[in-house]
Design a protein that fits this description.
Blueprint lengths: L8 H13 L2 H8 L3 H15 L4 E3 L4 E3 L1 H26 L6 E7 L4 H15 L3 E7 L2 H9 L5 E6 L6 E16 L20 E4 L4 H10 L2 H6 L1 E4 L2 H9 L4 E5 H5 L8 E5 L6 E9 L5 H14 L1
Parallel strand pairs: 3-4, 3-5, 7-8, 7-9
Antiparallel strand pairs: 1-2, 5-11, 6-9, 6-10, 6-11
Amino acid sequence: MAITYLPTLKQLQYLVALKEHGHFGRAAEACFVTQSTLSAGLRELETLIGVTLVERTRRVVRFTPLGEQIALKARIVLREAEELGEIAQAAGRPLSGEMRMSVIPTIAPFLLPRILPRLRRDYPDLKLFLREEPSGPACEALHNGRTDCVLLALPYACGEVSVLKLFDDHLFLAAPEGELPPGIGAVQPGDIDETRLLLLEDGHCLKEHALAACNRAELRAEATMLGTSLHTMVQMVDNGLGVTMLPKIALDAGILDHTNVVARPLDAASPVRTLALVWRRASPRERDFQLLGEVLKAAA
């Protein structure tokens, strides 16, 4: 019977790191090894399976078509290997060990300061590693195994995931003081001047939530989409450059403090986004994610 030589997890880790970073030096740093060690490990892998996975030149690292396929499979194998340890961990103390969570930028600075002290106090054995990134890259990282769960806002298509809805986050119109009619309680979508509306740039789902809530085609055509963060948007509004949409969690966190910006609720058919925690289906840490969701709800 022929002997089958299987790649090691370390070799697969080197391959995936090189695919993610596109550079031998940065991949080696990510794996905490020297560049020569990583390069040697990849050559051993290529010799083992008898194919070239990476074309090496002085300027670029280019994966062969087969190398692309094997790197994708390697991510899945590494993720499954990690979950072997998570199965045993999940059977022990709740919310302990390492957990990687991605959080979208329109949530992270406003909600995390309220939940992290509680997590440190109640679950001191939890090592929570946070990544702040837009919904698209966050969901991609989830399915590739680079993150364990994602805190985002719905509606958003994140693929085949388990979803725990946390709470509704209402949208408000923020404008320079004096621009809105005095005594106004709520703003109708039809009252918004589309030429004055400032929104986050593409890639931020809050932009889509705001446009969907208003349900006005001309807003999508006329609105200026250039903000990189809600704090930047508030500064532009404070300087009289326009109006914008803000979620309630940002207002509760004091984003308008020390500004001359006022906010009024949006009176629309669906003036909310729904904050949710999502994770890969059939994850062995589902109980941990459910518990984390309860902490998030309580903090809100």
